[in-house]
Amino acid sequence: MTDTKIISKELVDNAYTYKEYKDLIERLISEKKTTGPEQSESRSEYTKANFEKMVRIESAMILRNDLADELNDFNKKIIWLVLTEAWCGDTANANPVFVRISELNNNIKLRFILRDENTEIMDAYLTNGTRSVPKLICLDAKDLTELGTWGPRPKALQELVKEIKNKPDYDFNELIKQVHSWYKKDETQSTQKELLELIRLWKNF
């Protein structure tokens, strides 16, 4: 568990709501830009495609019945602070799940911060030494005590990515293709199931 003293009430209060995050991305798309210091045509294109995907998943996803039932019985006030970036495909697939869950239970306060504007926090939540996003940090709303984390991908996909990267003939474009295919087939079910397990755990802390 990470020392969450680096996460202050002021930071949480100033973090983006989902609407503010979406508004930011739309503005950047109109300027052919993206979040973060690295600005390129490819990242701008990724941002536009990922935004469209995020909105599409948000409107089309079906919440698991067991997850919906668990949310009806979740009474602990928590904060979900999500490290994200607009150009990242994994965030486009996960953020809509976070949003749908938080919409069904007012005890879950969802906020977003940008990875590259919060490197001190990001570096406290590395995945295998990398600044991988999204990273969801679950905090007790009373005192910002960390209850746990999720991310940057469902476990099965994380293992697949690791397996592909370990191949001697590893090809980045092939990796992206397989990741997209995995997400499409999974339809957010793995992310929902893993968050269900965590919600059951966190409500007893």
Number of domains: 1
Supply the CATH class.
Alpha Beta
Shape: globular
Number of E strands: 4
Mean pLDDT across residues: 96
Report the sheet with the most strands, covering strand number, pairing sense and barrel closure.
Answer: 4 strands, mixed
CATH homologous superfamily title: Glutaredoxin
Order of helices and strands: HHHHEHEHEEHHH
Beta-strand content estimate: 5-15%
| Class derived from helix and strand content | alpha+beta
Indicate the CATH architecture. Answer: 3-Layer(aba) Sandwich
In DSSP terms (H or I, runs of 4 or more residues), the helix count works out at 9
| Spans of at least 5 consecutive residues with low confidence | none
Rg (C-alpha, Å): 17 Å
Distance between the termini: 14 Å
Helix content estimate: 40-55%
CATH topology: Glutaredoxin
Order of strands across the biggest sheet? 2-1-3-4
Your description of this structure?
The protein is an alpha+beta fold and 205 residues long. Helices cover 52% and strands 12% of the residues. A hairpin with a 5-residue loop joins β3 and β4 (146-150).
Descriptive terms for the model:
Glutaredoxin; 9 helices; 205 residues; four-stranded mixed sheet; alpha+beta
Task: Summarize the model shown.
The protein has helices spanning 9-14, 18-30, 41-60, 65-72, 89-103, 119-122, 155-165, 172-186, 189-202; strands spanning 78-84, 108-114, 135-140, 146-150. It is α+β, with helices and mostly antiparallel strands and 205 residues long.
List strands and helices in order, with pairings:
Blueprint: H1 9-14, H2 18-30, H3 41-60, H4 65-72, E1 78-84, H5 89-103, E2 108-114, H6 119-122, E3 135-140, E4 146-150, H7 155-165, H8 172-186, H9 189-202
Parallel strand pairs: 1-2
Antiparallel strand pairs: 1-3, 3-4
Helix pairs in contact: 2-3, 3-5, 4-9, 7-8
